[in-house]
Structure formats: structure tokens, C-alpha cells
Amino acid sequence: MRLTAQFETAELTPRIGTEIKASKADLLAGDFREEIRDLLEQRGILLFRELDFTDEEQRAFSATIGEVFDQGEDGIFRVTLDRSITPQADYLEATTFWHIDAAHTKVPTRASILTARVLIEDGGRWTEFANTYAAYQDLSPEKKQWAERQKVVHSQVYLQSAHYTDPTPELAAHWLTHPEQVHPLVWTHRSGRKSLLLGRNAGRIVGMSEEEGADELAELLDWSGQPQFIYRHHWTVGDMIIWDNTGVMHRVEPYRADAGRLLSRCTLVGEEPVA
After folding, report:
1. Strands in the chain per DSSP E
2. CA angle 244-92-14, nearest 5°?
3. How far is the first Cα of the chain from the last one, in angstroms, to the nearest whole number?
4. What's the pLDDT score for residue 214?
5. What are the boundaries of each domain within the chain?
């Protein structure tokens, strides 16, 4: 552990992830806003082990570091495959594949804050996070130059089709209500840093055939999923994780829809258009 002026930190891996130890009271006071935001941008994910925030505390804390997206109940979205709790659970089935949330929009969400409420033994025990800043940084100079010239089409259709290989006509039509979005393959952030904008939501490269573009994107996705870029978190009830949705892909271990797994998520509104 390293002691900062405000809280203790420890790196989870060399390339991604930092654990923070701080009290509930200090976090809720909002005094760490800039330190947390800076550390999140640099390290991709922040872990608070067994913090045990209530939903109300999680919502209040989230509001200290950004604007909370209006979703669910008072800003809390229930991450579960139980459709009696979360009617949108159909969309969550595909989160077992690498993705960046809302990549099919002009301004992807800034970050997500997730707390484990109910866990099960046979699935959903881990979530993986991949640092797409580091993945870009380690590309060869030639591959960087190539990637920086490419434009990629993002759509919910690509991500959902990875899971639902034979969707009903109604389900497929519903996916199409989300418009496609074209983004550069390399996101040049306001900070000057660059990251790859990838995931199974990225389906084709502009100017290439469907097959050729899919092959190139699959190769980059495999590259970005290498162990040196990844932190895999094994959940304990009460753990809270924040991840930088603008520079981190994530995916969850598959689990049964009727298993009862439940997490609470707050989402921070996007602050930076893709450029």
C-alpha cells in the first residue's frame, strides 16, 4: 500500500487497476473528487474492497465525481438477468463479450460505479477489464499509423448478435432502434493520450469489406485482451469498482438468468465526444 495525502492505494497490476482504502465518510464528503478522477484516468479502474455502500450512499458518492445518468431508480440500475427486476435484461446477456458501454453514441458514458449485492457460486463471479490505452501504446509504430487512419462502425446489433445468434424478428428489430455510430479506431483524448475504441460492438471498418474489417477488428480485440492489459476482479459482496468507460473494455463471466446475481450500478454522463 502507498499512502497519499488522503488515502492508501495499491496497484492491482502494473498496467491497470488501483485499490483504494478510504472510509465511507471521507468518500461521501467529496473531498477526493480530483484525486479519484485523476487516478481513474491514469489507472483505468479503481477498487474499494467490501466498502458496503448502500444504494443511497453509492448514488451520493457517484455524484461527487461526476454527473449521474438518470436511469433505474434514483440513478441506480440493477444489473441482473431477472426481467422482473430489470426489463432491459435482454441487453445484459451480451455483456459476456468485450465491450465499451454506449460506444454506439457520439459521447460514450464517462465511467460506471458498480457494487456487488448478491453473488452466486456457478457464474458471474469475475469481471475482466482491459486497458485500451495500454493496448494502443504497445502497438508497433506501423500498426499505430494504420489504426489512426481507420473509421469503425459501432452498433448494438454487432454486440447483441454475438450472443443471440438466432434472434427473433422482434428482438432484431428492437436492436435497430439504436442508430449506428462511426468513430475513429483510435480515440485521441483531450488529455493528448490515445486509446483503442474496440469491443464486439465494433463491427466493420469503413472502406473495407465486411469480412476483412471483421478480421482486422478481431485481431486487435485479441491483442487488447492479452494478460498484461487485463485486471480480472473476483467479486465479494460489498466490493465497489469504478471503471473509466472511455479507455477500458469489460466483460463478465457468463451466468444463468435465473441465478439471482445482482449488482447496483451508477453511470456517469459522458464528458468528451470521441475524436
Report:
1. 2-3, 8-11, 18-21, 45-48, 77-79, 111-118, 126-131, 151-154, 181-184, 186-188, 194-196, 202-205, 230-234, 240-244, 248-252, 262-268
2. 30
3. 36
4. 94
5. 2-268
DSSP per-residue string spanning 1-45: -EE-SS-EEEESSSSS-EEEE--HHHHHHTTTHHHHHHHHHHHSE
Pull the grid cell for residue 246: 472511455
pTM above 0.90, yes or no: yes
At 228, which amino acid appears? Q
* CATH of 2-268 given 3.40.50.2300, 3.60.130.10, 2.30.40.10, 3.40.250.10: 3.60.130.10
Give the pLDDT confidence of 146-201 residue by residue, as tens digits: 999 999 999 989 998 889 888 888 878 877 787 899 999 999 999 999 999 999 99
Look-up: residue for cell 462511426? 182
Could you tell me the pLDDT band of residue 3, with boundaries at 50, 70 and 90?
very low
pLDDT higher than 80, residue 99: yes
Overall average pLDDT of the 19-36 stretch:
94
**Contacting residues for 60 by C-beta, under 8 A, at least 6 apart:** 28
* Measured CA angle at 139 (ends 227, 101), to 5 deg: 65
